[in-house]
Write a structure and sequence with these properties.
Layout: H1 7-38, H2 41-57, H3 59-68, H4 71-94, H5 100-127, H6 134-163, H7 165-174, H8 177-182, H9 199-212, H10 214-234, H11 237-244, H12 248-272, H13 281-299, H14 303-330, H15 337-366, H16 368-387
Pfam family, one: MFS_3
Keywords: Cell membrane, Membrane, Transmembrane, Transmembrane helix, Transport
Subcellular location: Cell membrane
Amino acid sequence: MSALSHTGFRAYFFAAVPLVQALWAQRVTIGWLAWDVSGSPAFVGLVAALGLAPSILAGPVFGVLVDRADIRTALRLTSGSMCLLLVIAALVAGGPGLGKTGLVILALAIGLITAAHHPVRMSLGPRLVPRQDVRNVVALSALNFNLGRMIGPVLTGIAIAAFGVVATLWLSAALYVPMLIAVRWMDPRDLPQGRRVSILNGIGEGLAYIARTPVARQALVLTFAIAVLVRGYLELLPVMAEGVHGRGAEGLGLLTAAAGAGALLAAVAKTAGAGQGGIPPITRVVLVCGVLTLTGLGMSQGWWAALVWTAIAGFASTFCGVGLQAAVQEDLPDALRGRVMSLWVVVGIGAVALGSGALGWLAALFGLMPVLIWSGALGGIVALVMVLPSRDWGAT
C-alpha cells in the first residue's frame, strides 16, 4: 500500500473507486438497453464491440496525444466528456428514448472516450509516485478494477430494477464528479521537453522502445499469450454455463462470480506482495499453470469442478496481467507512457477478441470441452517455452 502514502496518488485512487463503478454501471446499463430495444443477441454484441473497437483502432493515436498533453487537463477532458455524454444519454432516454441508432452512436462515443482514457490513467498513476512504488500503483489499480467488476454489475442491476434506466444513467454520470474535483490535488512529474513528432512517428517511437527493451518486449508477448487462451475462455462462459452444463443464466452468474473471485484474490495478492524487477519467476509459473487450467476444465465433467477451474483461470489472468503490466511500467520513461501503454491495451484487447473468436469457432465445430483440452495442452507447451528466459530476449 506504499503508493497511498503519496497525496497525489491517494486523491487519484479514491476518486477512481467511484469512477470504476461508473464504468461498469454504464456498460451494464447500455447492454440492458440494447437488449430492451432489440431483443437481439447480435445487436447486443454489436453495441459491446463498438465500445471496444476504438481502443484498438484509435488507442495508439490517443497515446501519442497524451504524451504531448498536460496530463491533468487530459484527465479532466476524458472524465468530463464521459460525464457529459451520460447526462445527454439520460436526457434522451428520459425523453424521446434511445433507439437502435442512438445506442450505436452512444456506444461508439463511449468507446472513443474510453480509448483516450486508457493512456491517460496508465500514464498518470505512475507519475504520481516515486518509481519504486509503480508496481504498487498497478496492483492497487487492479484491485479497484476487480472490486468494481464484482460489485458494479450487481449494484447496477439493483438500481435498474429499483429506479429505472434513466436514474441509473444519472447516477453513472455523478460518479465521475469526484475525479473532476480530485484533480486539483494531483501533482504528476513533469515530462521532459522534447521535439514534437508526427502521430505516426510518435507511434513508431513507442514500438521502437518495445523492440529494444527485452522486458517490455517479452511482457507484451506473454500478455498476448495469456489473453488469447485464458481470457479468451473467460469470454465464453455462457457456452460453459448453458451449452455444457445446462445451468442457464444462474449458472452464468456463478461462473462469472467465480472468475471474479479468483481475479480479486490475485489483485489482493499482488497488492500485498513485494515488488521485483523485470518479470518475476512466479508470474511465469502462474502463466503456464493458467494455460494448463484449460485442459483441467476440458477434462472435468462436474459443475463444481468447472467453478473451481474457472476461479483459477480468473486468478491466473489477473495475476499475470498485473505482473506483466508492472514489468512494463516500472522502468518506462514518463515521456513514452501514453504510447507504450496504449499499445499494451491494443495487444490485450486484440488478443482477447482473437482468442474468444477462435475458441468459439473451434467449439462450434468440435465442442467446447475437446477444444479446451487440446488448446490447454498445446498452449501450455508453447507457454512453457515462451516463459523461459533466453539470450535473445535478455535477462528478465
